[in-house]
Amino acid sequence: MTTGAILAGGRSTRFGDRDKAVAPLAGVPMVRRVADRLAGDDDPVPPGADRAAGGDPVVDELVINCRPDQRDAIEGALDGLSLPLRWAVDDEPDLGPVAGIRNACRAAAGEYVAVVACDMPFVDPSFLDTLRGDAAGHEAAIPRLDDRWLQTTQAVYRAEPTATACERALARGDRKVLAPIDDLDRIVVGDAEIRERTTERTFTNVNTQAELAEAETAIQEALNGAGTR
Predict the structure, then answer these.
(1) The whole model's pTM is what?
(2) Which of 41, 62, 67, 165 satisfies CB 3.0 to 4.6 Å to 180 for a cystine?
(3) Which residues contact 112 (CB under 8 A, 6 or more apart)?
(4) Region 40-52: what's the mean pLDDT?
């Protein structure tokens, strides 16, 4: 069993006065787009358009990590989701993604957890599925884009050791998202292999209103037949 975990607990400080997790993106709350792509229920938008729209789910359940004040709005945005849903609400908000990953791993029913940030609306479900295969027998499979940047918020982790590694990092006061990684037996998927499987758009973050507008344009172009798979 694999759990999908969506990290939504950040403060969205560059986005404006609205929580970006529930901001509409081409008419759909952003967190719902991410959830639907993992469930195979999203619009046919590349990369992984066929799997994102009408494909089999790549996870067996979803865990949503968020702050307590976000839950009602996110729950509304996810109403009718086709996957079972669990919550990993931050008991101490604002500790960053390390705490979010820890809490999601603790709440997961699956042995492995496919983590995606809520602001990655182009996540390629087929690519995430291959990462799950990479992680088998290890404690993590993490992409490294451009052979420089570890994509820790679009990666697959074994739940128990990852929760422990995150707890150790937080206990020593280290909130950097890379802090727990050194404690894990991990597979790193390099840039060349990433590009064989998908495109770098899968890692696109929507952090600002300008990036939201760019993402909306990309979705509309794909739906109008101008996008490429």
Answers:
(1) 0.94
(2) 165
(3) 2, 3, 132, 135, 156, 157, 158, 159
(4) 96
